[in-house]
Design brief:
By secondary structure, the protein is α+β, with helices and mostly antiparallel strands. Helices cover about 55% and strands about 10% of the residues. It folds into two domains: about 70 residues, Glutaredoxin (3-Layer(aba) Sandwich); about 120 residues, Up-down Bundle (Glutathione S-transferase Yfyf (Class Pi), Chain A, domain 2), CATH 1.20.1050.10. The model has no long low-confidence stretch (mean pLDDT about 90). Keywords: Transferase.
């Protein structure tokens, strides 16, 4: 039985599909109609109690939260496709450090800025609060200044123990990293080391280069 991915056209759906493609895992994508409230139905909430997408069904095993799904797939299919999680203990520690950096320093302001500039106008029909958008862009800019210094010394955010391959820590940045460009910012491209890392990641991701 192939893994079933229940998702909607939101940023994190792309991460799950990206990981499945990198690991060469067959899957079936099932579109969730969030515009008509399918995610709030009793049937959906039984699988994902927060009413969010995506979640997966792996032969009856239900799992939600995109990062958890990504780790599950990368671990279950460790021997095929792109490794994504290093096995060396020091490299693995640096991987977890990089994953924590994404959660603690990148995701918050990137998500808030994206909500204002893209989700509110497109999905909710609401006006963007430009002040809130600019505040979060400024905060993210300060965080990316630190990324710029880190990436001056290494190819990927997870470090050079495992610097020749993509890791999940890199892929975790893709959902909102790509949307920041669509939102009209130059946060990623204006920082040479960050930009080089982004280009390297995007050029190596299977699904983006089909």
């Amino acid at each position: 039985m192939v893994i079933k991915v229940y998702g909607a056209p939101t940023a994190w759906r792309h991460l799950v599909i990206c990981v499945l493609e990198e690991k060469k895992v067959p899957y079936e994508y099932i579109l969730v109609d969030i515009f008509n409230g399918e995610q709030r139905s009793p049937e959906f909430l039984e699988k994902q109690p927060f009413g969010q997408t995506p979640y997966i069904d792996d032969d009856g095993f239900i799992l939600y939260e995109s990062r958890a799904i990504a780790i599950y797939i990368a671990t279950k299919y460790a021997d095929q496709g792109t490794p994504l999680i290093p096995s060396d203990i020091k490299a693995q520690a640096l991987f977890h450090q990089a994953a924590s950096i994404e959660v603690s320093h990148f995701n918050g302001p990137a998500f808030a800025a994206t909500v204002e500039k893209l989700y509110k106008p497109v999905f909710r029909g609401l006006e963007c609060d430009q002040a809130v958008f600019e505040k979060n862009v400024a905060e993210l800019g300060l965080k990316l200044d630190v990324y710029e210094r880190i990436l001056e010394k290494q190819r990927y955010i997870a470090g050079d123990f495992y610097g020749k391959e993509l890791t999940l820590a890199d892929l975790y940045h893709l959902p909102y990293g790509r949307l920041m460009g669509i939102a009209g910012t130059d946060l990623m491209t204006s920082r040479p080391n960050v930009n080089r890392c982004v280009v390297r990641i995007l050029s190596g991701v299977v699904i983006l280069n089909k």
